[in-house]
Amino acid sequence: MAETVSPSTPALLASLDPLLREWLPRQRWFAGKGAPVIGFSAVAETELLPSDGRLGLHHLLVRVHQPPAPAEVGDCYQLLIGAREALPPRLAPALIGHVTRGPLAGHTVYDALYDPRPAEVLLEALRTGARIGGLRFERDPGREIRDGLVARLLTAEQSNSSVVYGDAFILKLLRRVVPGVNPDLEIPLALAREGCARVPAPTAWLRAELGGEPYVLAVLQPFVRGATDGWELALRELAKGEDFTAEARALGRATAEVHTALARTLPTVTLGQSQLEPQVAGMTARLAAAVQAVPALRPYEDGLRSAYTALADLAGEGRTWTAQRIHGDLHLGQCLRAPSGQWSLIDFEGEPARPLAERRMPQPPVRDIAGMLRSFDYAAHSVTPAVPGWARLCRAAYCSGYAEFAGVDPRTDPVLLRAYETDKAVYEVVYEARHRPDWLPVPLSAVHRLATPDPT
Ligand SMILES: Nc1ncnc2c1ncn2[C@@H]1O[C@H](COP(=O)(O)OP(=O)(O)O)[C@@H](O)[C@H]1O
Ligand SMILES: O=P(O)(O)O[C@H]1O[C@H](CO)[C@@H](O[C@H]2O[C@H](CO)[C@@H](O)[C@H](O)[C@H]2O)[C@H](O)[C@H]1O
């Protein structure tokens, strides 16, 4: 079922089908690794460069069919397919396969983001505000994009794919796309409007309107040159036995700046007992599911649940909290330190596995704070021997830095903080059991601490 098919590339997807079945599940960003791929349907096919020349470029949005989900609710992925008569050896890692039938018969197809020339076609389309088929390349007219910038694909392990242009810009091409307003564009645009310098301001973006629904497909931002992410930096300092509290304090301040700007520019709501109930119910249900999935959690179940009931009790006594738009998936890896010492926060997509509507809901800012506190703990427990004292100092410095700017110290609400930290640690236990079993002791050490009613 094709919702929009450009007449210039009929049946392209059908001819790629056997190659994509083999290639797609091997991609790091493919989220459906648990079930076999049994077919595809085209959501949109757009020709960006015709394949009759030396180099063809095709933009595809494909719905992936994976049992037991019905075909029409399969995840939708964004692909950029390059087509050449022969693939130069430098592009071998990008190979998808050799096409034997259909419009690209006789061509070798590959992931075009590995190839500077097609990636530069995308930048040029953004620079000129092109409209091609259903694709809308848009830009902030107030921000300059130089032409002739050379593209290189980032090879980091990512949920999406990013291309850097001449160390001036970075384009994040979303891989699994969903209809609706994407917070990865919405939040940085809102922060830029507020003049918040902690987040690189979107310079341009790619949108599409498909079946009457809006999609955000890519976002271009200034590239922070020579940056190190917080996780790398923390591990480096730990290995040297260095103090990290000055950076932790600066990170606390940066988080507070972002939260303050978001509370000014996007809606906030008051959470009383009736609004908090579903939050607590969600935490409790996630804990129950986690205990089923990871039996090592069982001895701690009652202790962990007490973190949630303590919060529900406070709400029952009439306490209220303010919820606002937040980062939603904050950890040290989402913080970039420029050589100047300035910290930026990136990747406002939220936890990609959660539905978009949930990711866009106002939440207590402590959720981000809890994510960062967990991250200091992670760093300290990922080295041998673990250095819990290092984490304690960083956590305290981070909260102080936050309080200095926001005027509120998260430690003054220990019940709320414990509940959100517990929810994150439970999530991490499941994440590690699934993806990195060797890391399981890291969140389990926090579970041990959080399961006691008065954690320090
Ligand atoms: N503005 C930026 N400047 C420099 N590097 C960046 C910038 N934005 C992202 N990066 C780099 O790209 C990586 C992936 O970006 P991210 O938004 O986290 O993508 P994903 O959602 O795919 O994980 C980051 O870990 C960081 O190294
Ligand atoms: O960055 P993602 O959105 O893909 O987040 C997932 O992977 C993270 C690991 O890469 C994981 O983060 C956990 O490990 C980090 C160290 O590798 C640590 O800094 C985080 O605090 C910890 O939660 C994250 O939970 C997962 O969603």
UniProtKB/TrEMBL annotation:
Monomer. It is an enzyme of class 2 (transferase). Keywords: ATP-binding, Carbohydrate metabolism, Glycogen biosynthesis, Glycogen metabolism, Kinase, Nucleotide-binding, Transferase. This is Maltokinase. Pathway: Glycan biosynthesis; glycogen biosynthesis. The lineage of its organism: Bacteria, Bacillati, Actinomycetota, Actinomycetes, Kitasatosporales. InterPro entries: Aminoglycoside_PTrfase (IPR002575), Kinase-like_dom_sf (IPR011009), Mak_N_cap (IPR040999). It catalyses: D-maltose + ATP = alpha-maltose 1-phosphate + ADP + H(+). Pfam families: APH, Mak_N_cap. Residues 23-115 form the Maltokinase N-terminal cap domain.
